[in-house]
Amino acid sequence: MRKPVIAGNWKMNKTPKEAAELIQALKPLVKDAKPTVVVCVPAVDLTEAKKALRGSKIKLGAQNVHFEAAGAYTGELSAAMLKEAGAEYVIVGHSERRSYFGETDETVNRRATAALRGGLIPIICVGETRAQREAGYTNALVSYQTLIALTGLSADEVKKVIIAYEPVWAIGTGLTASDEEANATIGVIRQAVAGVYGKRVANQVRIQYGGSMNPKNVKGLMAQPEIDGGLIGGASLKAEDFAKVVNYEA
What we know:
Blueprint: E1 5-9, H1 16-26, E2 36-40, H2 46-52, E3 59-62, H3 79-84, E4 89-92, H4 95-100, H5 105-117, E5 121-126, H6 130-134, H7 138-150, H8 155-160, E6 162-165, H9 179-197, H10 199-202, E7 206-209, H11 218-222, E8 229-232, H12 239-246
Parallel strand pairs: 1-2, 1-8, 2-3, 3-4, 4-5, 5-6, 6-7
């Protein structure tokens, strides 16, 4: 059985003080949660978030990691820095990083590799734009993105990875893939992993849905056999909404 992971991606929201307040409000609401719960906060929030998370089962994540251990990379953060600040997880290759900041499939692979070897669990994002979907490229694209992201990783490393399928056309738009569409595409991603690493490894990899999962659609999505959780954007910024997603079985 794959244990679901519900991760909140706060994006560029919440000051350190606001982060601590949100976490304090969230903690009692998810104390009995069955999935693994992660909050991926802005880098400046990590220290305060770590303090606020004490006494809870909620895990701490960052939103990006550089592929080098140190060096002249102004504005970047290494895996060691993030880990010492308290992070256990890190988002890699989010569509906003790809669209706005020049992230490529190759740099996603390098960042994911650095995260794993630095003791962090990468949440690797893959997904298609609306134009790519309408052109019929979804399956080929997400398979390619997945395999490039995993290039050079051992089977044991791949088992630790979390993949987030986030259809770009559904992020922040209020649109979402149907339960069956999301499940089918995540199944394609799992098949791509199986093609290289075998079914046993692929069946251990947790694959989330990241396209506007919210309290209204979470039950249907999480009922699908291939979906192992969610990467939550806007709904993770309010304790009550995020808790409803986390406690979808309640």
